[in-house]
Amino acid sequence: MSQTPRNPLLLRTRGMAAEIAARLRVMIDEGELPPGARIDEKELSLAFDVSKTPLREALKVLVAEGAVTHRQYIGYRVASIDLDDLVSTFELLHGLEAMAGELLRKRIGTATLAALQAKHRKMVECHEAGKRIEYFRLNQQIHQMIVDAAGNPVLSGIYASLMSKVHRARGAANTDTLRWAESLHEHEDIMAALADPDHAVLPQVLRSHSENTAREVLAILDRTGTADAPEQRSAGRVKAAG
């Protein structure tokens, strides 16, 4: 028997809730709603031009996903970030970036290189214009394009899954101006390594960029107190992540 609700109002509410949840995910991932931030239902209802009913349905979805927390009498807040889990995820990403670089040395074609260079130019333009969120989006796209170009679907899938876990942390740390400039310089090095016919340094350049990003993200989250630090964290593991 079909479980599809027949109430048109309920269908519209669920449809709106899904759309609102998607928009809130982007706001959380890109740091517009940072970890620990209180979610103002009235403000968001006005911003999205919706009633509180679909908004609360969307928030319930995000609570179930672990992106948002809810406490009686306190309300909704963006969930803090688990540093222990983040360190572990970054450790894997460092290796995957380097692996993609090794595979790319044999598989990258001129069309893929041209597409990456075009995307990089757009990212540079966003940096020059101070468009931080647009820069961040292009940055993520470039990294996924590089991994996809390695020609290993399993690697691409694992990488995309792990990156979805660190997007929120990277978005929260994306306000650091110095790291923004450093990141751009590192991307210039990546593009130079891609353009080199031998691509000899590409794996190490990708790994170094990943490690530098992890180090800065973890440092910023620690300074700002926007993450849940584990009770005991091995100094060796933190070093391995950065």
From TrEMBL:
Protein's UniProt keywords contain Transcription regulation: yes
Protein species of origin: Burkholderia cepacia
InterPro entries documented for this protein: GntR_C, TF_FadR/GntR_C, Tscrpt_reg_HTH_GntR, WH-like_DNA-bd_sf, WH_DNA-bd_sf
Lineage, highest ranks first: Bacteria, Pseudomonadati, Pseudomonadota, Betaproteobacteria, Burkholderiales
Superkingdom per UniProt: Bacteria
Pfam family, one: FCD
Domain annotation HTH gntR-type: ranges: 14-81
Database matches in SUPFAM superfamilies: GntR ligand-binding domain-like, Winged helix' DNA-binding domain
Keywords in alphabetical order: DNA-binding, Transcription, Transcription regulation
GO molecular function: DNA binding; DNA-binding transcription factor activity
PANTHER family the UniProt entry points to: TRANSCRIPTIONAL REGULATOR, GNTR FAMILY (PTHR43537), TRANSCRIPTIONAL REGULATORY PROTEIN (PTHR43537:SF50)
Name the UniProt record assigns to this protein: GntR family transcriptional regulator
